[in-house]
Amino acid sequence: LSKEKTLRTTIDADSLRSELRDNSIRVIDVRREEDYKQSHIPNAANLPLANLLADDSPDKVLKMAQSFGIDDETPVVVYDDTFGALASRVAWTLQYIGHDDVSLLDVTYGQWKSLGLENDTKVPSFGKKEHSLKLQPEILATADYLEKAKEKENVILVDNRERLNYLEQHIPGAISIPYRTLASADKILRPKEELKRLLQNRNVRSDAEVITYCGSVGTLSGLAYYALKSVDHPNVKLYVRSFKEWKNLNKPILKQENANYWDLSAE
Amino acid sequence: LTTADLKQSTEYAKPKINWAILEESENFAKTVKLYRQGKIDSDNFRRFRLQHGAYGTRMTDDYAMVRIKIPAGEIYPHQLERIAQLSEAFSIGSAHVSTRQNIQLHWVVLEDVSEIMRGLAEVGLTSREACGNTVRNVMCSPLSGVCSEETFDATPYAFATARFLLRNPMNQNLPRKFKFNFTCCEKHGMARIADVGLIPQTRDLDGKIQRGFKVFLGGGLGNKSFVGHQLEEFTQEEDLLYTSIAVLRIFDRLGNRKNMARNRMRYLVDEMGWENFQNLVLKERMIVRATQSVVIKLEVDNTPKEVKRPIRITDTDGRSPPDGYSRWHKTTTFKQKQAGFSSVFITLESGDMTANQLRALAKICSEFSAEGFARNGFSQDIVLRWVSDDDLPRLYSRLLEAGLANPGSLTMASPVGCSGTTSCNLALTNSHRLAKEIQRKFIELKLDQDETLRDATIKISGCPNSCGQHEIATIGFYGGGGRVGKDMYPLYQLSLGGRADGETMLGVNCIRVPAKRIIPVILKIIEVFKKNKKENDTLATWIHRIVKGNENSEIKSVNDFKKILEPLTIPPTKDQDKDFYADYGSDSSYHTRTGRGECAA
Q1: Do A202 and B585 make contact, defined as CB atoms within 8 angstroms?
Q2: What is the ipTM of this complex?
Q3: pLDDT tens for each residue of B278-296
Q4: Which end of chain B has fewer beta carbons closer than 10 Å to its terminal beta carbon, N or C?
Q5: What's the pLDDT tens digit per position in B329-340?
Q6: Cβ of B436 under 8 Å from any chain A Cβ?
Q7: Quick one: closest CA in B to A176, which residue?
Q8: Do A162 and B357 touch (CB under 8 A)?
């Protein structure tokens, strides 16, 4: 497999359509089953995020991948209808068990449909394939790892929740880049130059190790993981259990004090 | 016509004026970097930051508030959509409409400010000179052009003034901020509480109608407030620019650059005495007129507004309007001088709206306003003008869907509250939330429908400075702290009888009211009014008589009011009522905490 291909973090609709015609690719739809049944990209497998989260142990994920006919060499494309966040979490999990060639469709399913692109109601079946298990711990951050790493000079911790949630409480040392910063009007991720400029403004150096986290299951921060990957950030980790676990472990938390910022919200 | 026929006409209207310069955003990003590297000292950086419209935030150096300057309050649908997007990406997912027609984004990471500036520039907006010692946003009544009492539309003059002054070297380092305020008529503006306030007027000169203004100088609200003085009987149109330049030059030369608390122009006027100041302005104007090397003129664009379509999107399905329509119609719409059209005032709780509401408003504005844009008002509200009367029921249901159909925008039920402790360094209390609480209570009690309360106002500031404009409110409040033994509680000074119309006067201080007793106190004032009012009295006229000493009922003076309200203001012990000792929006005991203000940089 060419190096270029394994580094692809997103794929545009036209490329996906041509690869679909070649039947060289496996597409995964991570929406809920009822939505998937209504319509989906032709020949896409359905892996609702909730099913994955019910048990995302490597063995289980490996079995699921195999049941979708994915072997070590199958290019996989993941999509959702939730600005790429749910797809990111599934894609990351596949990468974690050692599947290199995963990318995100760069538009949501809603946008795909509004572009008038083909869709289907047929539920395809797949022959089982063998896939090896090669865990990639270098893309995962655990609470223990994070606690030690974040004290290091060259580690940048990024909180991808909304600003008000960050102000209310966050992991000490984290910087706030809300997930809404990452998308453009019509793509789940901004163009590279824009992302680069944003990260540069925020001093997210390209030689730093970056750890992303969000509220509970690593979806919003999963999208941030791919945003960083899309601009060729070499060392990104996802704190997949995120703030929920951090809080449950009674680890230190920081709050922006002495200001009633919630009352500025019109929600 | 059916809705489908209108499709082609619902393309967004585009503004004629581009206020932005894209390079300013790159320059800002670079300067932030230099500042963080210690290559620019903090005083110089602060001046630069404020000049570019980024204000400090409560108790932190990491965040800024970006104030988007909206001259005359005129804002277009695609600009609203862009602000929605920027608020989600870089702020708190809500934006705030200010009392000076700006839109503010709060809790922005300083390093992201340049991205906001870039996003604004792409839609022709700027935050340049929205803060700092500059000429701030040039205001213009949201009713200018549609008000039946105006002599002509002041909007083109407001735009011309804003264009002339934006980035003008004479306006980059004044002793202090400087505010222009154009209005439509005596009734709807705030001409007497600005550095320069202007009301259009005409005169008959040998059978020819000449345009001009009443120009008021030296007014303003703040720690010490003053009502502006009229410069001369008639300031002709041609002299508008010369007068503005003359006043700015005098202020630049003589304004107090040492004492931050005394450096607004109103103090200069006060110290010199009005007649001396007036003479100086008139002389300076002659010099300006005589010595301008190049003849400069305001570029007043008086081409008539294009009112594209009396669009009718009505009665598509014959349904009757949703519940609450007549209440909404009665309390939020204003009949324009143009028959068949109304202006609709959208009240926002303390000026806040979500990104989704901004997006909804963009669409609604484009579909319903025949001029195709909206105008920010003077009361943290947004005004949709040129709405065909026939479309009002449909507009109401659309606003309802967007959560923007609260009644009472043109009544006492739409209080103003500055940002207070939600973001401001100087704030002592959460005035922002208090205004929301009062609004909810008024709507719950249906007080917006009470004709006798309609022309009264409630305005709240979180400290003695007057961002909430409490001094021109019928019932005004400014925040502070009270104490019982060692325990502190939030409170407000109540003032009565302020107004900003032709009889502008500042409210008279009455009594200090604990924050958690404000609503009962307001309701008590209303109760006493109902008991003592004479036929045809409104709360505003009745209180006006009291503060002027002209009332003969049981309440003859502000002091009589004080006696009646006093029992409501007695603090309970902390054991009796813990909540009394916490401010709105907070569970913990109240204490005052302030940082450094930046109004004077």
Answers
A1: no
A2: 0.94
A3: 999 999 999 999 987 566 6
A4: N
A5: 999 999 999 999
A6: yes
A7: B109
A8: no
